[in-house]
Predict the 3D structure of the following.
Amino acid sequence: QVQLVESGGGLVQPGGSLNLTCAASGRTFSAYAMAWFRQAPGNEREFVARISASGTSTYYADSVKGRFTISRDYAKNTAYLQMNGLSPEDTAVYYCGATSGWWGSRADQYTYWGQGTQVTVSS
């Protein structure tokens, strides 16, 4: 099975930036579409961004469009989420997901998940 490990979260002030990393196991990273979701306490898991298996297509939630950038590095089997202009509303645990099937914005469309990394935006 594919394993995913997120890192790069932490405490940042409003307006600051973070770059999250999702390291994937295996040699078939290029066969999977990747996505980032986030979940705050008491909330549903929320779609943030996704990138196609080829890396040529991306899609973002309206709430993060223009501030966040998803990317992937095939040589490193790694996906990234660059987050700029952070606000307290971005505070959540961020999860990396992967799927070899339909590429969409629903959490149940993703087969593999990481443990999550905490992002806290506070002054």
